[in-house]
Every structure is written in C-alpha cells, then in structure tokens.
Amino acid sequence: MTTIDIDALLDDPESRVIVCCGSGGVGKTTTAAALALRAAERGRQTVVLTIDPARRLAQALGLRELGNHPKQVQVEGFEPKGELWAMMLDMRRTFDDMVRVHAGPERAEQLLQNPFYQTISTSFSGTQEYMAMEKLGQLAATGEWDLIIVDTPPSRSALDFLDAPTRLSSALDGRMIRLLTGPAKAGGWGLRKVVNAGFSMFAKAVSTIIGGQLLTDASAFMQAFDSMFGGFRERARKTAELLRSSGTSFLVVAAPEPDALREASYFVERLSSESMPLAGLIANRTHPVLAKLSGGEALAAAESLQNAPLAEAVLRLHADRVSLAAREERLLARFTRAHPEVALARVPALAGDVHDLEGLREIGVKLAG
Amino acid sequence: MTTPHAGWTDELARARLHFVTGKGGTGKTTLAAALGLALAREGRRVLLIEVEGRQGIAQLFDTEPLPYAEQRIAAVPGGGELRALHIDVEAALLEYFEMFYNLGFAGRTLRRMGAIEFATTLAPGLRDVLLTGKIKECVGRTESDGRHTYDAVVVDSPPTGRVVKFLDVTKALTDLAKTGPIRGQADGVVRLLHSGETAVHLATLLEEMPVRETVEAVAELDGADLRPGAVLVNRVRPPRLPARSVTAAADGRVDASRVRSGLASAGLKLADDTLDALVEETVEHAVRVAAEQRAREQLAEADLPTLELPDLTDGVDVAALYDLAEALTDQGVRL
Lengths: 369, 335
Hints:
Shape of chain A: globular
CATH topology of chain B: Rossmann fold
CATH superfamily of the domain at 6-113 and 126-167 and 245-288 and 330-368 in chain A: P-loop containing nucleotide triphosphate hydrolases
CATH class of chain B: Alpha Beta
Order of helices and strands of chain B: EHEHEHEEHHHHEHHHEHEHHHEH
Radius of gyration of chain A: 25 Å
Number of strands of chain A: 8
Strand order of the largest sheet of chain B: 1-9-8-7-2-6-3-5-4
Distance between the termini of chain A: 15 Å
Largest sheet of chain B: 9 strands, mixed
CATH topology of the domain at 6-113 and 126-167 and 245-288 and 330-368 in chain A: Rossmann fold
Number of helices of chain B: 15
Strand order of the largest sheet of chain A: 3-4-2-5-1-6-7-8
Order of helices and strands of chain A: HEHEHEEHHHHEHHHHHEHEHHEH
Number of domains of chain B: 1
Structural class of chain B: alpha/beta
CATH architecture of the domain at 6-113 and 126-167 and 245-288 and 330-368 in chain A: 3-Layer(aba) Sandwich
Number of strands of chain B: 9
CATH superfamily of chain B: P-loop containing nucleotide triphosphate hydrolases
Distance between the termini of chain B: 28 Å
Radius of gyration of chain B: 24 Å
Oligomer: heterodimer
Helix content of chain B: 40-55%
Largest interface: A-B, 74 and 76 residues
Helix content of chain A: 55-70%
C-alpha cells in the first residue's frame, strides 16, 4: 500500500487543480479547505471553491455570504507565504452569468424571466454539479491563482458532477420539446415513423399531465436557448478537458465506513475508465489506537477492577477503540485489495468540530502524514 | 432530562405509512429496514419502499438489485413478512399512461429515446407525484377479503433537505395540469400524507450537523402541515466515563495517577507513554461524550418521541438488522 505524498502534490508547480470528491458527509469541504490552507502556507496562490460549507467553517474562512467571487482570507495572525482565497458557489448566479455571457443582453433577460428557466436553474438535479464545474472553468481561465482546490456537491452519487453537463445538455437539446410541441416539424427523422402512432398519444398524455402552459414556456425557452447552446457545450467540453489534463488531480475522500468506501470504489473505477488522474484516497476521520495495550487485556483488567471507576472506564473505552480501529482497518484493507494501485492517506478524527484556521491547519498536518 | 419522551407513542402505533428521512450518512436506509422488520412482528406483512434509485435495500439485504415489483425480502419470526419495492419513476409513469392511454410498444420506444426522463425534467414535481402516488396505491390496496394487503408501509425517503418538497404534493401539483388523471389521484395522496395514518421519522446521529438538520426538518414539516413522527438516534455508543468526570476530562483534566493506581490494582503495570496514550484516548472520548450531550439537548427542542439505536462495531449485516429491529421493539415500536 502506498501513501499519498500530499506536500509533493501541493508544492508541484505543475499541479494546478485538485478536486476533492466522495459521497456526502465524509468531510470533503473541510479537507478541501485544509489542503488550500496548507498550500497557501507553503507558498502557493491558492483558491478554494466550496459548495455548502458548515456555517462555522465558512466563518473561519471569512465567508459570511454567498459571494460567488473569491475573497482573500484575511485573519489576524494569518500570514501565509502564498495567498489563500475562498468562495462559496452560488449556483443560481453562476447560471445567470453564464446565460448573460452567451445570449447577449436582450435575449438574456427574456431567458432569465422564463418560468421554465427558474425550474431548470434551481431544481434540475445536476445543475449544482454543472455550475461547480463551470465555476472551476472560470477560475482557471482567469489565471489569477496557481492552485485551485475544488469541493464537489453532496450528490446522490459521487459521479454526478462528471455527468451533469451531458445530462443537462441532453435535457435542453430541444429535440424532445420540438417533438412534443409540434411533431410534424420534426419530420424526416427515421425513428418518428416507428413511434408515430404512439407518439401523438404520448405528446397528448404528457401535455394533459404537465399542463399546456409549462410546455409553452419550455418551448419558448428552448427557442431562445438554442442559439447559445453551442457555447454551453463548448464550455462543458473545455472543463472536461481541464479535468483530464496533467495539472489536475482527484482526491477521493471517504470515511472508513462501508457505504462511503463502496462509493469511493465506484469513483476510483470511473475515474480510471475516464482517464482522469487520481492522486489517491483520503480515509478521513479514522480512530487509530494510541496506547499499546490489546483490547482483550484491557477488558480482562476492567472486569477484575472494583472501586476504581475511572481506571475501569479508561480500560473499557480503550477496548472500544481497539475494536473500532480494527473494523476501520478491515474495511480499508478490503478497499486496498480491490484497488492496490490507489495511494492512501489516513486522517485521524479530531476530537471536536473544526471552526477556525488552527483546526484546518491541524488537519493539514495530519493529511501530510 | 435530556430526552423528553422515550419510546413509541400510541399515536405512532396508529400510523400505517412511515417515512424515514435523515441527513445523508445517518443510516436512514438501515433504520427504515429495521423499522420494517420491527413492524412485521406477530405475523404482520410490511412493505419497504425505496424511491431514490440507489438500490440501498438490495445492498443492505445482500440480494440482487430489486426490480419494479414487490417481492419478499425477509421473513420475520412469528410468521411476519417484509417485502420490498424499488419504485422506478419511468416505469411508474408508463404504468399511468397504460392505464389511461393505449401506448402499446411505443411506450418502450419512448423510454429508450429518453422521452420520459425528459418529461420528468420538464416538471420535476411530476417525479414526486408519481412516487407518492404509487406509495398511496400500496397503502390503500386491499385483498379479496377486504383487508389491507400491507399492515404497514415504510419508505426509505429522500434526505432531510429534500423530504418536505417530496411530500408536499400540493405544491408539486402547481407544475402540473389542472385536470387530468394524475391530478385526480393526487388529491387522495394529499389527504393520506396529511392524515394521522402517516408519520415522518427522522434518523440522526449525535453530531452537530445531523442534529441541526433534524431540528430544521421538524420545523419545516410542521410548517407544511406534515406530521413528524419519532427521532431515531442512530449509532449511539455507550458512555464509559462516570458522568461526573466527563466535563473535566473533556477539558483535558484526567487524574493520571488515579488511573495508574487503578490499573496497578488490576495487575497492569504500563510504561509511561502507554499511560499517556490512554489518557489521551480518554480525553478524546470525553470530548465526544460532551458533544453528544449537547446534541441531545438540542434534539430535545424538537420535542418528539426519541428512540436510540446502538452503534454496531462490526457493521451492519442482515443479522444486525434483526438486532436493531429488536432494539426498536424494546422501545415500544408496534402496530
């Protein structure tokens, strides 16, 4: 089993983008922030893009609100060799900005007012992932930072951010809506003949179910959207290219739990099949045994004790910890057997929550091993 | 008092439709399954439904991915039975269409073309209306003797952040046509979800973020006139330290000489660095116990029946699910 050399990764000037991914609740955001802090203190011009940080972590980074633009982290006594910037993703504003850039002022207003746009830009599953990647593309394009660290949204599946641009593209592609609103106009399409009979029924069924007004809005939206579609697709292609480039590394974050590690496995396999550069797995919040005393010995001693409640408690909690650590190691060993090529870093759990730069720094030290 | 009401209430015992939600990572699928097993005692038949397409139930019971069909997934001592259903939105939509329009093989073709995903993209509310519609059908279904097919239905629901949107069908309907087949059926769904037959349980851990989400979700459910059921506190670990020592220990104050003499009386003579390491482990344990205590106090704000489930050091397998079900039964879970 190899270990990730975090400092080498952070110090390498060729290293431009680090993406932290993994299932929800494993500490991705905190890991991303801790990496960014460490990189800045080691001299990089760093920006961290967070998605939905816990309030106290956001405060530690000086992020009181969704700014949608990076702000430099300036805290008394914090004097990194490089710089640390941080931002929280505002999904809606990122989407709005994207529409404005591509559609020109007049049509942009028309699009932004459309009720169907409101739905797509806030409720479509995958929009957040798409916008996170769009923002990453924007930050990279400015050239203002030499290292960008990205947190990914707490998706149902950790893979969503790879697929979101394609999914949104196909949903907005306009072909279906043309079929639904006027099948005749979509003529000349081979498949249409096959489904012809069923199709007008389907179109009728869909419009009785979702309502004519919505279809009209959607149709108007699609018509306005059509012309800017090429621009969107081009952007998504560029971001995908950036993710595949040699300056990008993926760190998969997982708690030493079966579900999180299963998700991490899928992710590792997917990255490899997409030729995306994986730097390794961060096993976050492990509970290594600190005292050299076997669990059996501790329990036996605890059983024999009388009138020494403190010593007995110490022995029992140590035995708990020994079995917890053994379980975590078993799960990690199973992961490593399936993916022997993946480097690993263990980050022991901190006793309390992280709510300041000192806490982030401490995690950074643990990350670096 | 840290926990205002322990255990299942008579009111909850009257519910037939149980949703289990929670922040991601709190174990809601596990708890939904354990609740299903607990309710299926004494020869009852319970249906466990999955709506998020994750196949979490199949993984939990270590079986093949579930099809869109109700099938037996576990036997319960006493002649009870747990069945499972994985609702596939596309299949549910086609089922509707088949009911009202004769699509024939075109339905399958449309599915391949992505037409159905498109329709649910166009109207995200449609998805939830379809899912809750299917759930209602399962709850209301009766056998030829007039008795309900299922004594109870348990739904592994979307996480706390999305659950109210999922259950607030009335709102979702604004996306949809004012008349039509789904609309008609949806009114019945609204009645069921807001009735005493339905309870929304919240899975949580004794940690800051999950507890905050739980308290927020309870307020949101109340605001939408939906009924919060019980708080299911998952993975509770035994406090080892005497309560009076926790605060001091969490502050780093552990009387090392007392620990040393205690250990010596059990015949353990440890090197200084081992003793220091034991003290460090003790401090970490105390910090966690103190944080758990604060979490309990915050949970008490939700003012709901609270049930606790133990942490299983060896992880969750099928046998462990029965243990969790038993823990629920011991705390009064019944039909």
